[in-house]
Amino acid sequence: MISDMGMLDHIVAHSHQVCRVSLLLADHLGIIGIHRELIGAAAILHDITKTRSFHTHENHAETGAQMLSDLGYPEVAAIIGQHVRLNRNAPAAGTPTDAQIVNYADKRVLHDKIVPLNDRMGYILEKYGSTEERKNQLLILWNETQLLEERIFAELPFCPDAIIKLLPDDKLGDFHQ
Ligand SMILES: [Fe+2]
């Protein structure tokens, strides 16, 4: 699918990193079986329509979800559809959902580098906060993601910054074939 969609290399590299972060979190949260598989699949495919969106200006979270749904993968679609912004009914407490893990992981990867949340959100604010209204929406998203981070790491034996050390930058080459 990634090659069929003509994904740009840097978006493939980004997706690979989001997948690594997602699976690291899933593994340490004790998520196994089908949920781990869904998280991995959704993370690697979360930006499947992003390259195309540069020309079409489509909402890539929505169209990526639609694509996976049309292909018969509604559970993967549901996670992809929430990678930019979570659904309103996403639980605000308890163990994070598959969608929340991938959503958070995407906010820890700037281009192809794993970074602190504030670096990624600062970049998003600068790039997409062109109007006052948009800026305010993004600040709300930033705040919501901070709360999600606290919730995820309340269940983990390491702090958010430790992800960078736990996933050294040495495996990108494996993905490029
Ligand atoms: Fe994305």
Query: What is the name of the CATH topology?
Result: Hypothetical protein af1432
The major beta sheet can be summarized as: 2 strands, antiparallel
Question: Which kinds of small molecule does this entry bind, naming each only once?
Answer: fe (ii) ion
CATH architecture: Orthogonal Bundle
Indicate the overall shape.
Answer: globular
- Summarize the amount of helix as a percent range: 55-70%
Radius of gyration: 15 Å
Assembly level: single chain
Beta strands, count:
2
Total DSSP helices: 10
- Tally of separate domains: 1
Strand content: under 5%
Overall pLDDT score: 93
Report on this structure.
With 177 residues, the chain is mainly alpha-helical. The chain has one domain (9-86, 96-171): Hypothetical protein af1432 (Orthogonal Bundle). Helices cover 62% and strands 2% of the residues. It has ten helices and two strands; from the N terminus they run H-H-H-H-H-H-E-E-H-H-H-H. The chain has helices at residues 9-28, 33-45, 50-56, 60-70, 74-80, 98-106, 117-128, 132-153, 162-166, 172-175; strands at residues 109-110, 113-114. A two-stranded antiparallel sheet has the order 1-2. A hairpin with a 2-residue loop joins strand 1 and strand 2 (113-114). The protein is globular. The two termini are 14 Å apart. The relative contact order is 0.14. The model is unreliable at 173-177 (pLDDT under 50). Fe (ii) ion is lined by residues 46-47, 50, 60, 83-84, 106.
Brief characterization of the structure:
The protein is mainly alpha-helical.
List keywords for this structure.
10 helices, mainly alpha, 62% helix, single chain, binds fe (ii) ion, Hypothetical protein af1432, 177 residues, two-stranded antiparallel sheet, disordered C terminus
